[in-house]
Specification:
Strand content: 15-25%
Main location: membrane
Catalytic activity: ATP + protein L-histidine = ADP + protein N-phospho-L-histidine
Largest sheet: 5 strands, mixed
Subcellular location: Cell membrane
Number of helices: 13
Helix content: 40-55%
Radius of gyration: 52 Å
GO molecular function: kinase activity
Protein name: histidine kinase
Number of strands: 15
Number of domains: 3
């Protein structure tokens, strides 16, 4: 069903495209956030790692360094120890961070554990290793202790050295008056008790939620150390959301254009072809690709253009043939009128009048044939389809032909009276009448008329004669309007070349076909018209034939 409907394919394509773009957007966010999260972890550890490294560097002996590291491990409740630098393989970017006195963070997403490596300038053979297997309030409140431990070596110069190490931090770190923070009495009381406090603030701006650490400064009750505000990691900041949205819209627009482009291309081809038809160029045809609506439209357009072209050619041929066919009887009538005016003998005048009457009748017959052919050629006629007995039609034509005293031996092989088929009686009678009339003109002596319904559900009528027959190369051409063959089928044999064309069009509108070959028994021409015997099949084929025009 999908391959037969271009619109369903477009709708399905849009749904699939939306799903693919959504998956792509999700994966892209994950990739971007992976890098952002890594940078965020490094930015949080860079400053405090530098302060810890400076604390270790100040210890004069190796034992004191180990003791300091042990105390730091107990304070943070995290494993901290020295590792051999030769046993740690660093990437190029990690080595660059080590050279810049920055921390190397290796995060395991499955265990949610971060391994932190710190370089020690005085001990290049070792790295300080911190296994950050948990980060909680205790670890956060321990951070100011390391900074205050660093500043304790510079009494009276705390702010100057704080500014000096601030470049290693990605967040603010400063000493502020306690009254400027707008703390409540409980928070101030905890600070008076030498306890650090955490301040969480929800920010309506793009920074989002932030956390600040406020720690008291020994021997300085009016000022506190403020670390932060440190922004919490935002998995979907405005910049990424806007960028992913715009990129997704662009990809969707591009994908929809790709889906619509074949339809647009085919529509442009159809418009160009229609514009050429307006100029009178009927030779343009559309390529039929696939089995969807546009393929049906292209096929219908091609059939329409072919039909219009054939109608125009048939009209031109009709005009040429009519003008030619009318000249002979008109000339005879004019000649008869002149003779009638000059002749005084009564008997001769009666004979001339009779000849003129025959020519007028010939004109009436020609006009009737032309009108019938034009009606059948231009479009589907109004068919009054009924279930009729084929034998009745054949017998009626046989009686009418016998009444003409043709002196021909007409043999009727009629089916049983209960053999019926769906057809328009008037047009079926016209088919048999034209075929029999054609056989009368071209046979030597014998004509055979037969009909019935075959086992495959096809009704048929057949007319055979014992005349010279029709050459195989001319059997298609006999059904063309005003077509006359040489030798036996000439103007001298009568007719206007429209009878078989009318039969061909009636067969077409019946949803059937007509063909001519040689009669196996009589030796002359055999014409057989077949059409579906059931009305539903006839209607369906008629619709199909209409679409083929």
């Amino acid at each position: 069903m999908f391959k037969h409907s271009i619109f369903l394919r477009i709708y399905a394509g849009v749904v699939i495209l939306v799903a693919l773009v959504a998956v792509f957007g999700y994966l892209l966010v994950q990739v971007i956030n992976y890098q952002r999260a890594q940078e965020y972890r490094e930015s949080l550890t860079d400053g405090i790692s530098y302060v810890i490294a400076q604390g270790i560097e100040r210890q004069p002996t190796a034992q004191q360094k180990k003791d300091w590291i042990s105390d730091a491990s107990d304070l943070l409740e995290l494993p901290i120890y020295l590792v051999d630098s030769s046993k740690v393989e660093l990437s190029r970017s990690e080595k660059k961070r080590m050279d810049n006195q920055q921390a190397v963070v290796r995060y395991d997403a499955q265990t949610s554990v971060a391994d932190i490596y710190l370089g020690l300038p005085s001990d290049p053979k070792h790295y300080l290793f911190i296994n950050a297997n948990k980060i909680g309030e205790r670890q956060i409140k321990a951070l100011p202790i390391f900074i205050l431990d660093y500043l304790i070596y510079y009494p009276g110069q705390e702010k100057e050295y704080l500014d000096k190490i601030h470049r290693h931090f990605s967040y603010p770190i400063e000493i502020q008056p306690i009254l400027s923070l707008g703390l409540d009495s409980e928070q101030v009381g905890r600070l008076r008790q030498d306890q650090s406090i955490l301040l969480y603030r929800d920010n309506a701006t793009m920074r989002g939620t932030t956390i600040s650490i406020v720690s008291p400064i020994p021997n300085n009750p009016s000022e506190v150390l403020v670390i932060g505000p440190v922004p919490m990691f935002n998995w979907m900041p405005f910049q990424i959301a806007a960028g992913i949205t715009l990129l997704s819209l662009f990809l969707l627009s591009l994908g929809v254009y790709v889906l619509i482009f074949p339809l647009q291309r085919k529509i442009k081809q159809a418009i160009l072809a229609l514009n050429k038809i307006k100029t009178g160029d009927m030779s343009t045809r559309l390529p039929v690709e696939g089995t969807d609506e546009m393929a049906s439209l292209s096929s219908s357009y091609n059939d329409m253009a072919t039909h219009i072209q054939r109608l125009i050619e048939a009209q031109r041929e009709l005009m040429r043939a009519v003008s030619h066919e009318l000249r002979t009887p008109v000339a005879r009538i004019r000649f008869g009128m002149e003779m009638l005016a000059e002749e005084e003998e009564y008997e001769y005048r009666l004979s001339q009048v009779e000849m003129i009457d025959k020519d007028i009748e010939a004109l009436n017959t020609l006009i009737d044939e032309i009108m019938t052919y034009a009606k059948l050629e231009q479009g589907m006629p109004s068919l009054d389809i009924q279930s009729i007995d084929i034998a009745g039609v054949l017998e009626q034509v046989e009686r009418e032909t016998q009444a003409l005293k043709t002196q021909k031996d007409i043999q009727l092989i009629a089916p049983d009276i209960d053999v019926v088929a769906d057809a328009e009686r008037r047009y079926l009678h016209r088919v048999v009448q034209n075929l029999v009339g054609n056989a009368v003109r071209h046979c030597d002596q014998r004509i055979r008329i037969s009909g019935g319904v075959e086992e495959d559900g096809q009704a048929y009528v057949c007319v055979e004669d014992d005349g010279p027959g029709i050459p195989e190369e001319d059997r298609e051409r006999v059904f063309e309007a005003f077509a006359r063959l040489d030798d036996s089928r000439t103007r001298a044999s009568g007719g206007y070349g429209l009878g078989l064309s009318i039969v061909s069009r009636i067969a077409f509108w019946f949803g059937g076909s007509i063909k001519v070959d040689s009669s196996p028994d009589l030796g002359g021409a055999r014409f057989i018209m077949r059409w579906p015997a059931q009305r539903s099949t006839v209607q369906q084929l008629s619709k199909t034939n209409k679409s083929d025009l």
